Amino acid sequence: MKKILISMLVACTLTVSTISTTGCFGKFAAFNGLREWNAKFSKNKFVNWLVFLVLSIVQVYEILFVADVLILNSLEFWTGSNPLAAGDTYRETDANGNSVTAVKMEDGSLYMRLDAATGEKQELVLQKDEEVIRILDVKGKVLKEAALAEAE
Description:
- This protein is 43% helix and 24% strand.
- By secondary structure, it is of the alpha+beta class.
- It folds into two domains: 22-85, no CATH class; 89-147, no CATH class.
């Protein structure tokens, strides 16, 4: 048992060391998704702590971390997208009550809903390929299109 614990400690140390020095470590979508789910599981911090303990004892956190390191983040590094990152949601509201909600779609596009404080709403889709970025309405009609500047 002592050898297993020491081996796990060395593996974790090497993993953390590699992650902190390479700079190419990905989003950890699976691990962070579970962590965020656990944080929202209950409004009672003791219930969340108990769920965390159970998931740690069953080693769910550890399994997802290793899956992120070895598989998902490697895919993200080589392909540019993480398969679990689709569905990531961003929400922001300004001081005037205007808000934006953005969701990354499976095809790599970005769905955006803009809610003005006046009650006006607009839904847009942003698509990007190697040469062009497009803003479309939700029916697929191109509203605006711009060529991407080449990096020099």
